[in-house]
Predict the 3D structure of the following.
Amino acid sequence: MSICYNDEMFDQKKFYYSENLKKRLVWIDIAKGIGILSVVLYHTGFLPFQKQFLPLITSYMLPLFCVVGGYVFAHQRDCGKFVIKKIQSLVVPYLVFGIISYVFWFILIHISNYQIIQTDAGGQFIQFLLGKNLIFNGPLWFLIAFFSANVIYNVIYPYAHNKSAFKQVGFAFFLWLISYFMNPSKMHYVYSFDLVLCMASILLLGDTIRNNWEKIVQKKIIMICLPFFFVFSLKNGVVDMYGRIYGNLILFWCNAIVGSFIILFLSLLIAKKTMIIAKILEYLGKRSLLVLVTHWPIMQWTTYLLKSIGVLNLINGKPGFASFSYFISNKYVFTLVEIPLLIIYTLVPILFVLLLDKSKTCVLKYVQV
């Protein structure tokens, strides 16, 4: 497919960003929509051709949110006000939706009869206070780590902003190396503090991409990035930031940045088209935080309901932390079963968010988007 360029597409003042960052950027929301949809697809466990798709998706899935965060980052000299703002937008949703999902998980473990989510309720609450190993709502860890990364980035921003791209990339890679080597045992530290510098490094690269976006696109570097990303993501395999599974540390870092840049560019192209997919992704982007904090518990309850009506027994299903695994010897039948399960486990959380959004429930005020 050929890509057509024109001057209007690359007019920064008209399309890339608002100078005061108060106006929402449609293409940024679309990028976030792609990111959160990728997270949901990954957590379903039912993505077909996983050996091919998962290395690609996991390479950019979480780094994309850091790149976007760096792209639209608004520095504040008053660190106190900045911290309060980020507490409201990240820590408060962690606490509110963490407690809500913990209560529903507590109910679930008492009415279900499968063992994998059966664990000490008191121990899980302690883990919730420590921001790690959250069986009742796994993705919540990201909010606390992202909060800390933003606070650190706000401190280093005056020293890293307006530097040359070479210096910014070098400093970002230095931060990533510190993050990588400070946890050689791959332990799950409190509040994932070892991942905070990794996120801060990618936030910085989001600023680098913003400062050099017009040059990067006009030189058609995207044409070089595409084959690079596909080849090296497949070579590096599936990565998991929370699990500290990076593969090759250089390939992980490069794939995260290149993959995020590709998604940003793709989002820009989608935003220029009046397609329903653009509206859907834009909505998911605007509600990405709400999807993040609700999709895991919804999947758990979906699994419980499917087990209750006998679906899991029909396909030898075994419940997992969010969805379930199953065994069918015939690979074609396996895939035929996998596709409707993928649709169910993707659509149900999204429809739940849509209903929650339409209901104008009071919990929405805790989700800043």
